[in-house]
Amino acid sequence: MYISLSYGFGMNYRQCEIFVTALEAGSVTAAAERLDLSQPAVSKSLKLLETELGVRLFLRGAKGLQPTDEGRSFYLEAARLTESFGHLESFAQSLVRLEHARLEISCIPALSTAWLPETMCDFLHEYPDLSLSFRSRSSPETVQLVARGELDIGVSQARSEDKMVEKTRLFDLQSVCILPRGHRLCAEKHIRLDHLHEERLLSLSAADEIRKKFEAAMLMAGYSIRSQVDVAHGAMLCRMAADGHGIGIVDEESAKLFEAAGAVIRPLAEELSVPIYLLQNPLKPQTLIARKFVEHMLAVTAPRRAH
After folding, report:
1. Domains of the chain
2. Which of 72, 94, 106, 251 is the most buried (most CB within 10 A)?
3. Mean pLDDT, residues 249-257 taken together
4. What are phi and psi of 57, to 5 degrees?
């Protein structure tokens, strides 16, 4: 730190620190020990400070250093400076430790209930003082908020090619078939498309990527969809399937939550998946905690990317 005074001279923070320590310690020897400096270095700094200020700060005698009236007055201001700098230094260290960090995250509903909280568990233990704002939103909403710079991180399907959204692939989210217990297809190890064309199907919203891919696959295979019940979210679809209102194609993370509630999960014979991306705004300055979170997410999801 450099302090510029108005008298045509300058002094640095270190000189003030040495002066305050010397006055409080009462001698050059004691000050040198506290500061881990040599006695000549402390004496030189005090003399240089007196020369630059143009006033005598100490009387030197057998009893050690005795402050002059000017020295006592200067001490009051110099002590405030060193104390404030100490607080500033502590605050800077707390920033490095991420004690005042804040993170704004939005994630699609399919991954919000269990997957993201489980994925973040170790991260939150590592940074217990983190201030976190977490919201569950649709992919289009998440993309818009990232593009406007209102979020640090988004996790979504993100088909958008918006230049204000930088995408990093985390993993591919697989689709499965969810059925009520006792359904005839529970006997199958894998569910084929021809198993489904005469079934009463529970479907996600028309904009959902899983639904789009499933309907496209059925159309390409020449199968029609007999009956559909549209639902808003994967969790709702799974609940209705578990209660016996039909069967559905849904993401594996939503399905896992309902195995204990009477639902049966079967993989599809033909893979049906959607990529999940981590989203950031390339023009939004990345905070240290955001960078740490991205690194954590990439490390945790690495096995699924390699699968």
Report:
1. 2-96 (1.10.10.10), 102-171+275-306 (3.40.190.10), 174-272 (3.40.190.10)
2. 251
3. 95
4. -100, -25
